[in-house]
Amino acid sequence: MIHTILSALAVFVQPDADAPLPGAAHTSAIGDILSHTGGVAYAVLALLAVLSIFSWTIMIAKYRGFSAARKQSARFLRAFRKSGRLSEIASMSDQFRPSPLVAVFTEINDEYHRQTNGRGMPRNPVGLERAAATASSEALTIMEDRLTWLATIATNAPYIGLFGTVWGIVDAFHGLGTAGAATLRAVAPGISEALITTAAGILVAIPAGVGYNQLTSQLRDFGARIDDFGRELLNAIENAAAYVPPAQLPPSGGTAESRRIF
User: What is the CATH code for 29-237?
Assistant: First the structure.
């Protein structure tokens, strides 16, 4: 549609013999375009600039946060697999934040202690699974906070730029009607607005879209790691609670004393 409108403009526009050659009066094409930009186009460019800064702020913060979470998760897993007791892991878990695995461990450990006070088999294994699922969901919700803004900016920035484009073309046609002669001088401001706002909208949308896709992919990876850890922790609790050393086996007809997990 834009191409068709610009083609129609080219039919009506006649070169202005008195106009200076392109580039003769200005050394910067961008500066020349901005110097002819009207108030509406400036408002559109200002809005796109704010959205660009906002999207880059989100992306940088998320990349840093995800990198820290990934490193701390690796450290927490090593400590978890080396430790022999839940109480030991619980006492040092805070130093591994912002790993989402810490929240999952804390929720499962708290639920296990509510059921058994730290001894023996859990009375309600399904409750532990629900606690793990809840903790996983909450951790992912925290990590994906503000990511939807990137999707919104990537989707709507081109439309905001298109608004500036349409407004610039309307201004160009208005210039044709009021200038008394169909010259480049009359329509150049409107065309400049059309081109600069379209380019700005695309420049804002592309990084936001790429950042959203990359961060969403990392979030899916975190989700898989969280689920794997939850299952590993539940298995470790059940195996440790069910295990009784041979020396502690009860005599025939007796029962084994429940022992503290891990």
Answer: 1.20.1270
